[in-house]
Amino acid sequence: MPGVSPTGLAELDGRGVVLRRAVGVHPAHDGTVAQVEVAQVEAGLEGVDVAAIGELGWDRAHPPRDALVDALVELAKARGLPVILHVVGLHGHAVERLRRHGQVQGVVHAYSGSAELVKAYVALGLHVSIGPSVRRDGARKVIAAAAAVPDGRLLVETDAPDQCAEPAELPSVVDAVARARGATVEAIRQLTYDNALALFG
Ligand SMILES: [Zn+2]
Predict the structure, then answer these.
(1) What distance in angstroms lies between residue 56's CA and the mean position of ligand 1's atoms?
(2) What is the pTM of this model?
(3) What integer is the mean pLDDT of 47-51?
(4) How far apart are CA 190 and CA 137, in angstroms?
(5) Cβ within 8 Å of residue 3, ≥6 positions away
(6) Which of 6, 44, 104, 120 fits as disulfide partner to 95, beta carbons 3.0 to 4.6 Å?
(7) How far is the C-alpha of 57 from the C-alpha of 45, rounded, in Å?
(8) How many CB atoms lie within 10 A of CB 190?
(9) Rounded to the nearest whole angstrom, what is the distance from the C-alpha of residue 86 to the centroid of ligand 1?
(10) pLDDT category, 10, cuts 50, 70, 90?
(11) What is the distance between the alpha carbons of residues 88 and 175, in angstroms, rounded to a whole number?
(12) Burial of 78 (C-beta count, 10 Å sphere; 0-12/13-18/19+)
């Protein structure tokens, strides 16, 4: 489960919920000062099983916070953790900015960019995760992107609760990705399972 605010997942503790968590600062989070938030994320890594740093990134609905993203990407690299990137509408900017960090392990989640930019993210070392919008017949851009991701970098997700009601809808996303790639459902299921394990452990 990804984090959207530096301390947001702490409330799950003590509820008997067993999840691997990520800690991050979503671009929609109404933040304070980057240094404070990065310190909060660092504190959130202590003593718990953290699978990734994220969400973090850029969203056209919110002012870009490049310094915050830079610091979180560097923190992830220093800790050997993957990042979960949220990028909506600012993919060109994101790629340009991420290139400053060299190779970056992680995933661009609920990918909404072009098939062309899939190559740029993959060249950076990133995985690309296809979300529920691929299920729509008219979603040509996402369908083309789903077909463009190399086998070893493909992931799937529901983006629940944003785009889907619940994670149980994942098989319908797998079905649509299989159609987009001309692959079998079983092949996509196995591929994305293996890729998720390799990335997040
Ligand atoms: Zn997101």
Answers:
(1) 8
(2) 0.92
(3) 91
(4) 24
(5) 9, 21, 22, 23, 24, 25, 26, 41, 44, 54, 55
(6) 120
(7) 19
(8) 11
(9) 4
(10) low
(11) 24
(12) exposed
Query: What are the residue boundaries of the structural domains of the chain, listed by start?
Result: 8-200
Q: Tokens at residue 77, please?
A: 């690299």
Residues 97-126 have a mean pLDDT of: 97
Position 13 scores a pLDDT of 59
Local structure of 83: helix, strand or coil: strand
Query: How many A from CA of 165 to the centre of ligand 1?
Result: 15
What type of residue is 87? V
Q: Tell how far the Cα of 45 is from the centroid of ligand 1, in angstroms.
A: 20
How remote is the CA of residue 148 from the centroid of ligand 1, in Å? Answer: 21
Query: For residue range 155-169, what is the model confidence (pLDDT) as tens digits?
Result: 999 998 888 878 899
Going 136 to 138 to 139 to 145, the CA torsion angle's sign is positive
Lowest mean pLDDT segment, chosen from 71-75, 96-100, 106-110, 136-140? 136-140
Question: CATH homologous superfamily of domain 8-200?
Answer: Metal-dependent hydrolases (3.20.20.140)
CA of 106 to the centre of ligand 1 (A): 13
Please state, in angstroms and as integers, the Cα–Cα distance from residue 58 to each residue in 38, 61, 67, 80, 97, following that order.
Answer: 16, 9, 11, 22, 10
145, pLDDT greater than 70: yes
